[in-house]
Design a protein that fits this description.
This protein is an alpha+beta fold and 409 residues long. It is 31% helix and 22% strand. The radius of gyration is 26 Å and the shape is elongated.
Length: 409
């Protein structure tokens, strides 16, 4: 979506319509648009000046109030896609089909309406691709039913290329039932990434709906500190049952994190930093930090330790910063260029001590060691921000003082 000057306003994430009780075409009320900071706002169709393939042009006037779906409103992507409906027209009376896409047109009165449906025969599953046809809106029935007959295939296709944070935002906007259905259809790695970005209530709701074995697999795929935070919000007996189903090594890391107070270095740290032995070379270090699964903060430095090289490690030697690694010959040893002057923090260090340490030494991550100088983990700046921000920061409006007009007329 662009303003009249060509500057991007945001990305269209859904279309809001009202389905009438008669067979009249649904009226398009407006668009759900994701603007910076992943805020979803409502843009009425009266403020849309042009619709073209790949872009929407608006008047440039935005109401920054967060979008909230109202009674009588239907989301095209969230609630219409994959809906099983019945053909009543010439294409086949009484046949069950699934909605794959919708077509909108502007009327003579300049209102927008949903006029056509792109539907698939044969159950609508992407694994059983049946014939697809375009039909008029009045040639189907079934939209007045509940969402119980709506699948998830098209939603998953639409969400496939989203980043975890954006997908988490999209899931948050769905009803609890739809959210659980989509979450259950994601693979373990994707669901783990998304859970890490969701508000606490959504995390608990989704995890509680999963089979316990599946829930344990997803927890294993999460970063240990995020898994510990989530388990810490569950009833103790439920958390213990899930820990027993996890792989012993994964469960041990999580149990260790759960033993620390939430607002200490031990409670905030991750147990999976990049760890190398003193005889590792710069080339090996750079190869390790190229891992696309590492966050920027974890990839910013490597930790040099004596064996064993899994937390808790042998004696902690020092930190090698990526800027220094890039300036040294590939054959150099990391032990020869690592910073040994910084004093690591203990797991009992408080949140103010952690933030002061990061600010004083201009770091994005810091080492946490026990009394015998064994590396236990690392606290990254994003871990700290998660604990500094309000508990509901993922859900709160960025502009607390904004009072917008109702989004639908």
């Amino acid at each position: 979506m662009f303003d009249p000057g060509g500057d991007q306003v945001g990305r269209v994430r859904d279309v809001v319509v009202t389905v009438r009780t008669s067979r009249a075409n649904p009226r398009v009320l407006g668009l759900v648009v994701e603007i910076p900071m992943r805020r979803r706002v409502f843009i009425p169709m009266t403020r849309v000046t042009a619709l073209d393939a790949g872009q929407v042009i608006t008047t440039g006037v935005l109401n920054l109030r967060r979008f909230e779906q109202r009674a009588g409103e239907t989301l095209v992507l969230g609630e219409m896609f994959d809906r099983k409906v019945t053909l009543t027209g010439s294409e086949g009376s009484g046949e069950a089909v699934a909605v794959v896409d919708v077509g909108m047109e502007q009327t003579r009165t300049r209102d927008w309406e949903v006029t056509q449906l792109y539907v698939r025969r044969g159950g609508g599953s992407f694994r059983r691709r049946g014939e697809t046809v375009v039909v008029d809106w009045d040639e189907v029935t079934g939209f007045a039913q509940t969402e119980a007959n709506q699948g998830t295939a098209s939603l998953l296709a639409a969400y496939e290329k989203m980043r975890p944070a954006d997908l988490a935002s999209a899931l948050h906007e769905l009803s609890p039932k739809r959210r659980s259905e989509v979450a259950s259809a994601l693979d373990d790695e994707k669901l783990a990434d998304v859970l890490e970005e969701l508000p606490e209530d959504d995390q608990i709701q989704i995890l509680s709906q999963l089979d316990q074995r599946r829930a344990a697999d997803v927890l294993e795929a999460m970063a240990p500190d995020d898994a510990a935070d989530l388990l810490g919000e569950l009833p103790p007996d439920q958390a213990e049952a899930l820990l027993k189903l996890m792989e012993p090594d994964d469960a041990e890391d999580v149990r260790r994190l759960l033993s620390y107070d939430e607002y200490t270095a031990g409670g905030m740290m991750t147990t999976e930093p990049v760890i190398l032995s003193p005889d590792a070379t710069v080339a090996e270090a750079l190869a390790r930090v190229r891992n696309a699964d590492l966050s920027p903060a974890l990839a910013s430095q490597v930790y040099v330790c004596r064996a064993p090289l899994e937390t808790p490690t042998g004696r902690f030697v020092g930190i090698a910063h990526i800027q220094r690694l890039l300036r040294e010959p590939p054959s150099s040893l990391v032990s020869g260029i690592c910073d040994t002057d910084l004093e690591p923090l203990r797991p009992t260090a408080t949140l103010p001590e952690v933030t002061t340490y990061l600010a004083t030494y201009n770091l994005v991550a810091l080492p946490v060691v026990d009394e015998n100088d064994h590396l236990l983990g690392t606290v990254t700046v994003d871990d700290v921000l998660d604990h500094l921000l309000p508990d509901d920061w993922r859900e709160r409006d960025a502009d607390h003082n904004h009072h917008g007009a109702p989004h639908a007329s």
